[in-house]
Description:
Pfam families: NMO (PF03060). It comes from Antrihabitans stalactiti. GO terms for molecular function: nitronate monooxygenase activity. It is a single chain. With 330 residues, this protein is an alpha/beta fold. It has helices at 5-10, 27-35, 50-63, 83-92, 106-114, 126-135, 158-166, 182-190, 200-203, 212-220, 243-253, 258-261, 267-276, 299-317, and strands at 16-18, 39-43, 69-73, 97-101, 118-123, 139-143, 173-176, 196-198, 226-229, 237-240. The strands form two sheets. The chain has an eight-stranded parallel barrel, surrounded by six helices. It has a two-stranded antiparallel ribbon with strand order 9-10. The protein contains 14 helices and ten strands. The protein has two domains: 5-206 and 296-317, Aldolase class I (TIM Barrel); 212-276, no CATH class. 47% of the residues are buried.
Amino acid sequence: MLRTRFTEEFGIEHPIVQGGMMWVGRAELVAAVANAGALGFITALTQPTPADLVEEIKKTRDLTDKPFGVNLTILPSITPPPYEEYRQAIIDSGVKIVEIAGGNPATHLNHFKEAGVKVLHKCTSVKHALKAQAVGVDGVSIDGFECAGHPGENDIPGLILIPAAARHMKIPMIASGGIADAKGLVAALALGADGVNMGTRFLCTQESSIDQKVKEQIVANSELDTKLIFRTLGNTARVAKNTISEQVVEIERGGGGFDAIRDLVSGARGRKVFENGDLEAGIWSVGQCQGLIDDIPTVAELVDRMVAEAEDLITNRLGEIVVERVGSRA
Length: 330
């Protein structure tokens, strides 16, 4: 058993989180994560309306009696969704854990706190982690440059970002980005985190709703097969390397603005990738840790394997390292 202040604060068995993923964080995956003793998040904006989110929460409760949460991601959008309505749907459904990503958590924090909801805020810098702690969130997820989706604009990898943030955190902190196995879990704990968040690794499990061809491509890909887009727009995103993402990079490099890439990067096209398995239909998020993924297990197999291997690493591999103290010589 790997008990940390994160597992204690959020009432879960293992210090492993499946964070919000657009088009992916659905009931079947989230319930499987919860049943495995980890913490899964339904992605609120995957659901077309707040009423649909309420139904997805009910569906998840039919599949598990263990804790799970809802992710509410606040990012620049062509057509901003009704965030307040999604927030109220979460509260009215009795969900007790929320992951906020993107925007300032203070906008929604008081509403969630009044309803007894614990808030985990995902951020990409020490500055934002400190601000989240100051406004009163219950935990922070610190997202390194290796991650899928939006790694921020500072380009700081987890090996630096995790301990830099841990020095200042008085609340539980989990590490995101570049983590796909037990080695990543143990390393994150050693760096000062209280658990880990994984997106790409859970994307590539049997309960994940994405098309099998996408999962097989993740297994086939290496850590080199991602591209950074939206760099010129100050909204960097890490996505899979394909003809569409390469085209977007070239347009940006040539000075093209958002209007020049709007159609290429539409969410509707990205959704077709996940649902139809057309790997060239649009951009799709995946992290550099895909280079560490070589199978498509069930969620239970993945979590059990990670915990068992982490315990073995801590008690045996690290326990075998001899620390020799050499005194001064005459």
